[in-house]
Amino acid sequence: MLFKKKKTEVAEYRKVPVHLGIIMDGNGRWAKKRGLPRQAGHVTGAQVFRKITKYCEKCGVSYLTVYAFSTENWRRPQDEVDAIMNLLRQYLKESLADFQQENIRTRFIGDRTPLSQDIQELMAEAEQTTAHKTGMTLNIAINYGGRQEIAYAARRLAEKAAAGEIVPDSIDEQAVEDALFTEGQPPVDLILRPSGEYRLSNFLIWQSAYAEYVFMDDILWPDFSEKDLERAFLEFGRRDRRFGGV
Ligand code: IPE
Ligand code: IPE
Ligand code: MG
């Protein structure tokens, strides 16, 4: 009886966000705990990313943005950066076939110009191959920083103003939003971060102005599973989002 009641409660609260952001953190610590090199954590983390992406699409998430490599992550040892870039290359190559079967539109956000030429080409191919898909939109943040994104938006708007296409007075919140990498997408509803760090680390700082945050300190990304996502959906459903109203 008690169990039955609990189940009803669960079903009542569960809510799937329209736009979900995930900071895939804890790969290095996961590897260290096992006496493995940090790179091993990234390998497993990349597999978990694929699994969770598919699950999000199944659950009806409309937009999923994952933080894969930040503008600050270049500070890491060169061999670790190389390993992450190799994983990205591998993911792109392997997924190009997979993309045909799935109804996921893949996009990349961030500055891709410092990435190697072949990776940039694979990214463009992934975007083109999936552009017509009607299911979930997946934004993969690579060499992404929220501050960098806002600076780009400012530059784009300034260029338009200098060219006489817009007047400075017309620059409002909507205009800034339309100049971001996530142009045309709704704001982030829920940001999820495993690994016990309670910070945004420069992720979607504009888009998450009214997001709910779920920081999970009992799990590292390579151990993350569908059931952890469900825990977050439950917690999200319990939040009272007022957006400044009453
Ligand atoms: C996240 O895991 C992956 C990237 C930043 C690329 P970390 O590599 O930050 O793992 P920890 O935080 O050191 O455990
Ligand atoms: C944020 O994680 C970036 C990604 C998960 C890709 P970090 O591990 O780089 O962030 P900090 O250094 O703990 O803030
Ligand atoms: Mg980290």
Write a concise synopsis of the structure shown.
With 246 residues, this protein is an alpha/beta fold.
Feature tags:
246 residues; alpha/beta; Undecaprenyl pyrophosphate synthetase; 6 strands; disordered N terminus; binds 3-methylbut-3-enyl trihydrogen diphosphate; binds magnesium ion
Structure description:
- The protein has about 250 residues and is an alpha/beta fold.
- The protein has one domain: Decaprenyl diphosphate synthase-like (Undecaprenyl pyrophosphate synthetase, 3-Layer(aba) Sandwich).
- Helices cover about 45% and strands about 15% of the residues.
- It has a six-stranded parallel sheet with strand order 3-4-2-1-5-6, with helices on both faces.
- Helix 3 packs parallel to helix 4 and helix 4 runs parallel beside helix 5.
- The longest helix is centred in the middle third of the chain and has 24 residues.
- The chain is globular and about 60 Å long.
- The N terminus is likely disordered.
Count of DSSP helices?
8
What's the CATH C level?
Answer: Alpha Beta
The total domain count is: 1
Number of strands: 6
| Low-confidence parts | 1-5
Corresponding CATH superfamily: Decaprenyl diphosphate synthase-like
